[in-house]
Amino acid sequence: MKEHPILMNGAMVRAVLDGSKTQTRRIMKPQPEPVPHRPGDYQWPCNAFQSMVSVADTRAPGAHGMAGDACPHGGHGDRLWVRETFGYVPPDEHQRPLSECRIEYRADLPAGNTNRPGGWPATECVGDLARPRWRPSIHMPRVASRILLEIVSVRVERLNDCSDADARAEGTPGGHGVIPSYNYHATPSEHFSHLWESINGAGSWAANPWVWVIEFKRVAT
Fold first, then answer.
1. 108 pLDDT higher than 70
2. CA-to-CA dists, residue 204 to 42, 75, 194, 197, 221, angstroms
3. pTM for the complete prediction?
């Protein structure tokens, strides 16, 4: 069993915590390209196997978790520790070693709340480097992570192959009001595509890249 870090934004973290998110999709790098003389199949250079691996290979009978073996995020039974936006809060108004500080997570703030860690109003912290601040998820050390996931399965597919059931497993159930300025009842897939573009930019859903589909369950820490 191996452990790998994985970045998640606030919406993803909240969905994992409430149990509605059991899948995550990550863009494959590099993207698979068409296999010569095998119409419909795609392949990519795989570091794990030191060779080209095709999508059809990962789906063949007897593949036995080949996609997970090839996935840089890990395979069946491996664990993912979640990196999220966080902050250190000292026990008083003085700077303290990080080991003496409490850890807070921005995903726990109510929607629209702009406070700094420790409840400090952002307007009172302008230019004050001594006040607690939110730190980017990429800088979270393992010891600060509160969420541990175990990979259940891994597969390779196109982003737009995400079904409504998959979208619900991504923590995006759809409904009224989940997409700003959209006055209709959004399907789970529409909800997920909106979330995807909010993270990856306009046009990223239509680009329909190949993705790793990682299913997981939460593990007690």
1. yes
2. 20, 26, 10, 6, 35
3. 0.91
